[in-house]
TrEMBL record:
Leading EC class: isomerase
Helicase ATP-binding domain ranges (all copies): 29-201
Domain Helicase C-terminal: 222-379
Organism of this sequence: Winogradskyella alexanderae
UniProtKB keywords: ATP-binding, DNA damage, DNA recombination, DNA repair, DNA-binding, Helicase, Hydrolase, Isomerase, Metal-binding, Nucleotide-binding, Zinc
Protein name per Swiss-Prot or TrEMBL: DNA helicase RecQ
Keyword flag Protein biosynthesis: no
Family: Belongs to the helicase family. RecQ subfamily.
Length: 529
């Protein structure tokens, strides 16, 4: 063990009381200390904060930490202060400070006491702050929740857009560490480009959560009863039920209470006192279940949440992953149960209308992934991990049998010929269609787009009409996960052949497929309010 390693371990013990690093932390920290640009992609709970906190404490100068969430910044500052003998070690710089407080922050920085300075991106637009920060020694800059910089992230924040310029003004050669828990390959690329650090060393932890069990059930008009039954089967365990609307949160919380379940509602429309009370009740186990909108969860660190139920399907796989990720943090059981009806997707699409076109296209593409996830019959875990750019083998991977589709597999059929037909159609149409239109071409149904390209006059139009639309959609999803096709993100999902796909056309081999689940479109009539 080199001296640097020994020092890191003792610093870890000294400041945080931990006896070892988690996952990739040590490699990340070394890279930051060496002064390189660094990009960290780790799921929530992976221990990202330490990746910049420890180097900040060790290095000379002050580290600037950009974070979008004021409440979380305060928590972090408190936590750092608790392990230091000087409160000045960490500060938040924001618009709520008065003159005396600002002076104190500046003095502590100038005196070399402050190792971590948390700022919201909008505070960095203040000339006065930028000028000050230019004049002091900055060790590095950490950009937390870096996905906020990308329109393809689930939480785009325009004020993150300018960060690169502001950071450059503070110092041209100050190293940057970007951190995120959500990174599809497209978001990763956006972050590296937008922060001007394409040279960054990237550290990506696995997103696999082997202890979580994933399940999707059809959402019928009996969804409330289904939820009650599930909770009663899990009596005494802690869980979260996510709903889309505040109204639904209130109603469902009441329904659960009437049925003898200790449940409380949580949404941004409740006053702050009630929200804190309900959150504390959940943390202190005075209630078992929180029925909530997505306002609930950020920064809530309850390790033994045993189930997360989605009464309404979320608007992206990122959101789904984030929300289900709150289950089983302690490594114990965590059941993730989502109720799905296509009508809910239509509802979410309606919310998007009226937004700028690019935003709608992105929102639509993200929703299509949710549909694919809900309807697929391949392993849910494999699907999610593929979405995050990670290959997963159910035979050898941890948690390989932990989802409904793997436990109750659908019968598989040989689809070698159909895959060939599909790939050839992608090729013959010069890779210009998204899944839905491509399927229309295959089954021989024209639409405005198809006829504008005159694809409906070509000999292969309708080549697969002996099979239903549903079959072809399912096949496309499975072929995507198998890596024979890929979706082009820039065009919001146009299908392109991969090298593997091209090879398959020339040299087809066995391809076993399972049909998707079929959800009864009528079954949820009048359910959601
Ligand atoms: P993230 O920001 O990736 O969601 P956090 O930084 O909040 O994760 O860390 C998650 C939890 O793991 C925290 O409770 C933190 O104290 C703990 N933790 C981080 N690093 C270590 C470590 N090396 N050993 C033990 N616990 C750790």
């Amino acid at each position: 063990m080199s001296i640097a390693e020994i020092d890191l371990h003792s610093a870890l013990k000294k400041y945080f009381g931990f006896s070892g690093f988690k996952g990739l932390q040590e490699e990340v920290i070394k890279n930051v200390i060496e002064g390189n640009n660094t990009f960290v992609i780790m799921p929530t709970g992976g221990g990202k904060s330490l990746c910049y906190q420890l180097p900040a404490l060790i290095k000379e100068g002050t580290a600037i930490v950009v974070s979008p969430l004021i409440a979380l910044m305060k928590n972090q500052v408190d936590a750092i202060r608790a392990v230091s003998d000087n409160d000045g070690v960490a500060h938040v710089l924001n618009s709520s400070l008065n003159k005396t407080e600002i002076k104190r922050v500046k003095d502590d920085i100038l005196n070399g006491i402050t190792k971590l300075l948390y700022v919201a991106p909008e505070s960095l637009t203040k000339e006065e702050y930028v000028d000050f920060l230019r004049s002091v020694q900055i060790s590095f800059m950490a950009v937390d929740e870096a996905h906020c910089i990308s329109e393809w992230g689930h939480d785009f924040r325009p004020e993150y857009r300018n960060l690169r310029h502001i950071l450059k003004r503070i110092g041209d050669d100050i190293p940057i560490i970007g951190l995120t828990a959500t990174a599809t390959p497209k978001v990763q690329e956006d972050i590296l480009k937008s922060l001007g650090m394409t040279d960054a060393v990237t550290f990506k932890a696995s997103f696999n959560r082997p202890n979580l069990f994933y399940e999707v059930r059809p959402k019928t008009k009996n969804v409330d009863a289904d939820i009650i039954r599930f909770i009663k089967q899990n009596e005494g365990k802690s869980g979260i039920v996510y709903c889309l609307s505040r109204k639904r949160v209130e109603e469902l919380a009441q329904v659960l209470q009437v049925n003898g379940i200790k449940a409380v509602p949580y949404h941004a429309g409740l006053d702050a006192k009630t929200r804190v009370k309900h959150q504390d009740m959940f943390l202190m186990e005075d209630c078992d279940v929180v029925v909530a909108t997505i306002a609930f969860g950020m920064g809530i660190d309850k390790p033994d949440v045993r189930f997360v139920i989605h009464h309404d399907i979320p608007k992206s796989i990122e959101s789904y992953y984030q929300e289900t990720g709150r289950a089983g943090r302690d490594g114990g059981e965590g059941h993730c149960l989502a109720f799905y009806a296509y009508k809910d997707i239509e509802k979410l699409e309606k919310f998007m209308s009226g937004k700028p076109v690019a935003e709608q296209e992105i929102g639509h593409a993200l929703l299509q992934e949710v549909v694919a996830f809900a309807e697929t019959s391949i392993s849910r875990r494999k699907f999610i991990l593929h979405y995050f750019g990670e290959a997963f083998d159910n035979e050898t991977g941890e948690g390989g049998d932990m989802d409904d589709n793997v436990r109750n597999p659908k019968k598989q059929v040989e689809a070698k010929d159909e895959v060939k037909t599909l790939l050839e159609t992608v090729k013959n149409t010069n890779e210009k269609y998204k899944s839905k239109d491509l399927v229309q071409v295959i089954i021989g149904k024209s639409n405005a787009l198809i006829s504008s390209h005159k694809t409906d006059t070509l000999p292969f139009f309708g080549i697969g009409k002996n099979k239903e639309q549903r079959f072809w959609m399912a096949l496309i999803r499975q072929v995507l996960v198998a890596g024979l096709l890929k979706k082009d993100i820039e065009t919001y999902g146009v299908l392109r052949l991969t090298k593997m796909g091209k090879d398959f056309i020339n040299n087809p081999n066995s391809f076993m497929m399972a049909e998707d689940h079929v959800y009864d479109e009528e079954s949820d009539a009048g359910i959601i309010t």
